[in-house]
Amino acid sequence: MEYDPTLLLQVEDAHKSFPGVKALSGMRLDLRKGEVLGLVGENGAGKSTLMKLLTGIYTQEEGSFWLNGEPLRVRTPREAEERGLSIIHQELNLVPHLSVAENIWLGRESLAGKVFTKPGTQIRRTQELLDTLELDLDPRSLVTNLTVAKQQMVEIAKALSFDARVLIMDEPTSALNEAEVAQLHTLIRRFITPETGVVYITHRMPELKLITDRITVIRDGSYISTTNTAETTLDEVISGMVGRAIDTSARPVNVRDDREPILSVTNLTTKSLLRDVCFDLYQGEILGFAGLMGAGRTETARAIIGADPIVSGQIIVRGRPVVIHSPAQAARLGIGYLSEDRKRYGLMLNLDLTHNVVISSVQDKFSRSVFESRRPMRAAAQDATDLLKIKTPSVSQLVKYLSGGNQQKTIIARWLVKDCDILIFDEPTRGIDVGAKEEIYQLLNQLASEGKSIIMISSELPEVLRMAHRIVVMNDGQVTGTLRADEATQESIMQLATMRAEEKGQ
Amino acid sequence: MMSVIEALPVQKPSAWKQRLQQLLAFAGLLVIFVAFSIARPTLFPTYSNITNILFSAVVIGCLAMGATLVIVSAGIDLSCGTGMALSAVMAATFMVTWGLPVWLGIILTLLFGAFLGCVNGIAVTVLGLPPFIATLATMMICQGLALVVSNVHPIYFDSGKQGSYLWLSTGTIIPGFPNAIFVLLLAAAVAYIVFNKTILGRYDVSIGSNQEATALSGINVKKWLVIIYATAGVFTALGGIMISARLGSAQPATGSGYEMQAIAATVIGGTSLAGGKGSIIGTLIGALIISVINNGLQIIMLPQQWQNVVLGAVIVVVVFIDQLRNKQAKAR
User: Fold this and answer.
1) Chain A: closest CA distance from residue B104 (Å)
2) Residue A400 · residue A344 · CB < 8 Å
3) Is residue B118, in this structure, part of any structural domain at all?
4) Is the ipTM of this complex over 0.90?
5) Looking at per-residue confidence, does A60 or B111 come out higher?
């Protein structure tokens, strides 16, 4: 293949193998000057392998790589950065207890002589950088005190401090709310000049329409297609990714008005955020919780299950008032919580699937006095694996080797084995690829139709609209409204989600 | 083309892999043993010297069993050395000073060890102190209390009245084999069952792997951590019983330094200080390795001051090799 001078970044016929796995075969990628190129594919499609080849984390084996007309062959990410190619990883690589300025110039500090830092100069340089990007950040604030969105901006500022011409962003918006996404997109547009380009990897399909000029789809380590964004539909993109058509216009199923309340929360208040949160969850329904980040949805879930203390409020489960002091007690009442941060709050990553499935019910189901019964444990894990279609070579597989969707199913299995019938899902599809999302949606619908009652906290409005029978909208620690599925729209939810904040601003 | 998921190798905490590690540790033990035997053929591989090694392995082994349980939960117990000395003093107080029968004295001592462990567990869970700090404090408290209770004097057992107590260590049910060996095997067997066959072991591993996720799974993590530390305390007390039965006296000023040997034995045995992974058999082998090295260095007349230097170097080498192998396994 020939080098094309109009391209900023060009990959031709790249192959990469790991023992037992062909990760890439015949992969290509063209990034034109001045464009934002969307790169989409399911988890395991080869996106991160490709990125790691470009930035020198993996060594190139076969294929041609050009950056701005010159062969690209780098050994370390720092070398790539110096060539003008920066990558912003999904998991941010900042040092939490250093300041914004210290993070940006880490390893390249302004020095007086060889040893002593010159903090003043460094802060001035940082301020200049932030000013050119029109970023509202204080160079002195500690990164740990910033929101995820702000931290991401620090990462971007850091990338641009290398005079980056190509910026690769790996799922930059997975932890951002809608307003922050808009801010990020503004920043990207400001970065784009006729000499620069962005590769934008995402799982959030609607964003492709908003920000990208062209979209490259890859699947199973192979190149599928590249199309102009304006000339394609999201359904086409998704079917290219998964190799089959997926219906994005699905609506909630089994919506009924004649249900009994199973969980009632009245005037729930916590010290930090929540004020007088009230709602009812009916048996067999999916109750969506919408709102901006920090609105108090996760806090509500944690307060209900006793993970955080409450100041006042009443919780009624199946008609009986209860006081829940701990997740252990919540589990005994049949309430299971699936955290938005699976790796931190959900899984024992270094332990096997069986352990992760049975851990909640070992004491009541899989033990005689203090001794465990191994065989029933493995049988239960196997049954759950079959039932939920968890893709794994065996129930002894360590959970860290499962994909995001299968990890999520593992936690669902945990609560089903525990016989929980009130399930609180916090961002159930975060970091999960499109095909697996669809499976999770079907699973949630199936669980609800079997009589499980589900609270689904989600920051993705399309997801809430397609799944939830009713939608509770929160803002600033309070419930600002409850909508029925048939009256809810993106606009009506956003209005409720931002209502109080605007009122306060006036 | 193969789908990526199907092509992923099965990553089990596979039995053979763990066995291989234990086999390697055991081979290491044999190599060290043979090396000392060649260096001092007349002094090292003798009946009386091997018995000496085992006497020391019993004490380190008991402490290391407890240390393993605590370390798997991602904690640490620095108090087990001086806790052992305090337990020995308490055993002597119960039997010699108060004149209680031996069987009652032993039970009370084990309960006292559980109590010490509870104090550690409560400091870690209810007070929320980092395990390192909490047990550093109890280490010093135990050291002080051992001297206070004994009035700074060793307490000697009466070979008549407490004869059966001394018999626990130095007596022989099977001629030629001191009972201490069987106590060690029994302690290891109990620890093995607790760790591998009970819910305590499962929660221990789970807490060590991810404490917050375990709590959100509906496990009362604080309660189980207290139980884990208490169980470790029982092993500490057993160590105190075995060392005082061997010496025929409770020595209040000893004990400090044993915690490091126990931790070293645990780490050599393949237990990760990061928690979530451990092996009782590995710890048993680790305790034997440490005892053989301690003893062997004395036999080859290496000056006392050099012995710890060698032991420290051994720990670095062993753990380095272990990490190297783990890295290779990960790199694929």
Assistant:
1) 26
2) no
3) yes
4) no
5) B111
Q: Residue B48 falls within a domain, yes or no?
A: yes
Detail the DSSP E strand segments found in A421-495.
422-426, 453-457, 470-475, 478-484
Query: In angstroms, what separates the C-alpha of A306 from chain B's closest C-alpha?
Result: 9
Contact call for residues B90 and B109 (beta carbons, < 8 A): yes
The CATH number for B205's domain is 1.10.3470
Task: Provide the token pair at B215.
Answer: 């709590």
Helix (H) / strand (E) containing A146? none
Convert the pLDDT of each residue in A174-230 to its tens digit. Answer: 777 778 888 889 888 888 888 899 999 987 778 888 999 999 999 888 899 999 999
Residue among A449, A443, A398, A401 at smallest CA distance from A425:
A443
pLDDT of residue B119: 97
What are the angstrom distances between the C-alpha of B280 and each of A374, B63, B273? 19, 12, 14
Alpha helices by DSSP H, listed for chain B, are 4-7, 15-39, 47-72, 80-92, 102-125, 131-150, 163-170, 179-197, 199-209, 211-216, 221-247, 258-268, 280-299, 304-331
SS3 A203: coil
pLDDT category of residue A173 using cuts at 50, 70 and 90: confident
Residues of B in CB contact (< 8 Å) with A are 1-5, 7-14, 197-200, 202-203, 205-206, 209-210, 212-220, 276-277, 332
Instruction: Choose, out of A16, A298, A326, the residue to mutate when testing the contact with B (most B CBs < 10 Å).
Output: A326
The tokens describing A105, both together, are: 């110039």
The SS3 call for residue A103 is helix
Q: What is the pTM of this model?
A: 0.78
In this predicted structure, the answer to whether residue A69 has a pLDDT above a threshold of 70 is yes
Query: Smallest Cβ distance to B217: which of A44, A360, A397?
Result: A360
The count of CB pairs under 8 A between chains A and B is 120
Q: Is residue B27 part of a domain?
A: no
- Other CB atoms within 10 Å distance of the CB of residue A503: 10
CB contact under 8 A, A401 and B218: no
Nearest residue in A to B207, CA atom: A348
pLDDT computed for residue A405 by the predictor: 86
Lowest mean pLDDT among A486-495, B274-283, B319-328: B319-328
Number of domains chain B is built from: 1
- Residue length, chain B? 332
Which chain B residues are within 8 Å of A401, Cβ to Cβ?
Answer: 8, 11
Give the pLDDT band (50/70/90) at residue A239: confident
Q: Which domain holds residue B129?
A: 44-323
Look at residues A199, A192, A153 and name the one whose alpha carbon lies nearest to residue A176. A153
Model pLDDT for residues B80-104, shown as the tens digit of each residue: 999 999 999 999 999 999 999 999 9
Interface probe with A: pick from B2, B3, B4, B126, most Cβ of A within 10 Å = B4
pLDDT one-digit tens code per residue, A309-336: 999 999 999 999 999 999 999 999 999 9
Does B14 fall in a domain?
no
Query: Distance between CA atoms of B191 and B184, rounded to whole angstroms?
Result: 10
